[in-house]
């Protein structure tokens, strides 16, 4: 089966970069990314590629090369579905905020809407691919919707979860550890569909890195991978608190442990807590699925990863209050970083949001600097929590455009995101312009504590 036209529904952090790379690597395939969000599509089409809606190192160059050649961004969802041989569904699957499973289960309404739209519009056979992260067995529901179109069109459903991490999306897509493709391995049509997708990826991914499995294994592997990754962060963060009590240094512990090849050194960086749109959502989903099968011990085991993460964010904020003589009321706290990690403008579930909320409850005055996150996003994140009025959020928290401005006359600085530029700030000057004692809380273990202490700072580093 020769794929000539690909459509991707959802032009977000996954759909945009993934399709840009497919288009770049497969110039003979026409790739159309569609979205109902007109503003987002307009930004993807902005003449100046620096204005595309997602910041990822290297992405704008790829978009520049492929856009208008074989990469297109559009709001004409029906048109793109109709033309496509292969449709990726890459829409958001957030945690449900209502009804059964509220706060735990994945909200599949956007996925279902896509399936119904495909069923309504399709006039010829198509391969439909789950790119979004979904609960295991979602493909069965998609199949039922798609098989009931009564217009004779046949669909093959594949699961092809995405493992890219934000900030390194382009690297991850160019050289993935593996590409996972799940499908109906028991039928010839299913195997053909899987091979069609294998062929797309094999334009640049070595065959041995393309894994084919049954569809349920593929769906569950994605949730498992995120749960394991998040568990490592919670594990090292649990140790960071013990380090602070005992004089051990969490970096030294991580290094010693990580040199065991069975454990490995990656993803053992202690922090103020993991954020991002997926770890928490996917673990909650796993907990919900486990509970729904009556597997309470399995559910409790994974839920602890989230409990630990919430604790880490809270205890970092509490440490600030406690160190500042048990009150931050009316004190200026500079927050460096708002994104959930460096090299992205994504703030979803960022630890910074919760630390700020905690400090605002203590009536601190917060000044935020982040090199990529806009003020409107910061306020939207706080407003979404609903802790206080929009006016209060704007009154108590200010956003500035340089780190120097943020730190001027501050009682304390908190580093929330590990942006490289924070390493090379003129710390001596910053110290001079702060109120004394000048406190610094490094939630990312980014800075050199000894040097800062020598300058006069009272530095607290997580896990030290
Ligand atoms: P996102 O919110 O950035 O993008 C989703 C897009 O889908 C939005 O622009 C939205 O407008 C659009 N959309 C929703 N319903 C639509 C419809 N019916 N028709 C057309 N467009 C529609 O989300 P994301 O971060 O790209 O994540 C998408 C999926 O990929 C999620 O399931 C997520 O768990 C998974 N995932 C995300 C990442 C990541 O790094 N962000 C990595 C791997 C997997
Ligand atoms: C994560 C996974 O790494 C991807 O494989 C997956 O595709 C993606 O989720 C997803 O499904 O959305 P992402 O959330 O973009 O990617 O970023 P990560 O690099 O995993 O970082 C997540 C959070 O953990 C960040 O807040 C980061 O600062 C934190 N982290 C990470 C640590 O605190 N310590 C570490 O050692 C690693």
Short note summarizing the structure:
The protein is an alpha/beta fold and 464 residues long. The protein is 44% helix and 14% strand.
3D structure, described in words:
- The chain is of the alpha/beta class and 464 residues long.
- 44% of the residues lie in helices and 14% in strands.
- It has 18 helices and 14 strands.
- It has helices at 15-25, 38-44, 59-66, 77-83, 109-121, 138-146, 169-174, 188-201, 215-246, 250-258, 279-292, 296-323, 351-361, 375-385, 390-396, 403-407, 427-432, 449-455, and strands at residues 5-9, 30-34, 71-74, 86-89, 126-130, 155-159, 179-183, 210-214, 332-336, 365-369, 397-399, 412-415, 439-442, 458-461.
- It has a six-stranded parallel sheet with strand order 3-2-1-4-5-6, sandwiched between helices.
- Helix 13 (351-361) links the parallel strand 9 and strand 10.
- Helix 9 (215-246) packs parallel to helix 12 (296-323).
- The chain starts with a strand and ends with a strand.
- The model has no long low-confidence stretch (mean pLDDT 97).
- Residues 133, 162-166, 226, 229, 233, 267-269, 271, 274-279, 340-341 line the site of uridine-5'-diphosphate-glucuronic acid.
List the main descriptive attributes of the protein structure presented here.
single chain; 18 helices; about 15% strand; globular; binds nicotinamide-adenine-dinucleotide; binds uridine-5'-diphosphate-glucuronic acid
């Amino acid at each position: 089966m020769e794929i000539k036209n690909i459509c991707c529904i959802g032009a977000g952090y996954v759909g945009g970069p993934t399709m840009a790379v497919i288009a770049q690597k497969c110039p003979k395939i026409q790739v159309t990314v569609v979205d109902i969000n007109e503003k987002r599509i307009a930004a993807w089409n902005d003449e100046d590629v620096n204005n595309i809606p997602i910041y990822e190192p290297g992405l704008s160059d790829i978009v520049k090369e492929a856009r208008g050649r074989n990469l297109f961004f559009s709001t004409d969802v029906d048109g793109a579905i109709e033309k496509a041989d292969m449709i990726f569904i890459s829409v958001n699957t957030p945690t449900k905020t209502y009804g059964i499973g509220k706060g735990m289960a994945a909200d599949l309404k956007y996925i279902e809407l896509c399936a119904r739209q495909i069923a309504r519009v399709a006039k010829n056979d198509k391969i439909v691919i789950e790119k979004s992260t979904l609960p295991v067995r979602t493909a069965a529901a998609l199949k039922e919707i798609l098989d009931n179109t009564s217009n004779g069109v046949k669909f093959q459903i594949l699961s092809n979860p995405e493992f890219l991490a934000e900030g390194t999306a382009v690297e991850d897509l160019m050289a993935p550890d593996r590409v996972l493709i799940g499908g109906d391995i028991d039928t010839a049509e299913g195997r053909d569909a899987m091979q069609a997708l294998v062929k797309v990826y094999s334009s640049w991914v070595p065959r041995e890195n393309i894994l084919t499995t049954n569809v349920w294994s593929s769906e569950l592997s994605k949730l498992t991978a995120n749960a394991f990754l998040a568990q490592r962060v919670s594990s090292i963060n649990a140790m960071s608190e013990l380090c602070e009590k005992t004089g051990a240094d969490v970096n030294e512990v991580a290094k010693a442990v990580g040199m065991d090849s069975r454990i490995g050194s990656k993803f053992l960086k202690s922090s103020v807590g993991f954020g991002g749109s997926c770890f928490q959502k996917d673990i909650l989903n796993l907990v919900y699925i486990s509970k729904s099968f009556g597997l309470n011990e399995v559910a409790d085991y994974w839920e602890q990863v989230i409990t630990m993460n919430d604790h880490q964010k809270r205890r970092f904020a509490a440490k600030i209050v406690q160190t500042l003589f048990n009150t931050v009321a009316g004190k200026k706290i500079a927050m460096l970083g708002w994104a959930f990690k460096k090299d992205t403008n994504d703030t979803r579930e960022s630890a910074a949001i919760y630390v700020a909320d905690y400090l605002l409850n203590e009536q601190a005055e917060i000044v935020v600097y982040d090199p990529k996150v806009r003020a409107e996003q910061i306020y939207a994140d706080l407003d979404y929590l609903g802790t206080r009025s929009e006016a209060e959020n704007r009154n108590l928290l200010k956003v500035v455009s340089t780190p120097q401005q943020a730190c001027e006359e501050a009682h304390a600085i908190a580093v929330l995101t590990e942006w490289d530029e924070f390493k090379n700030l003129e710390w001596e000057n910053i110290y001079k312009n702060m109120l004394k004692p000048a406190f610094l809380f490094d939630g990312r273990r980014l800075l050199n504590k000894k040097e800062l202490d020598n300058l006069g700072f009272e530095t607290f580093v997580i896990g030290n």
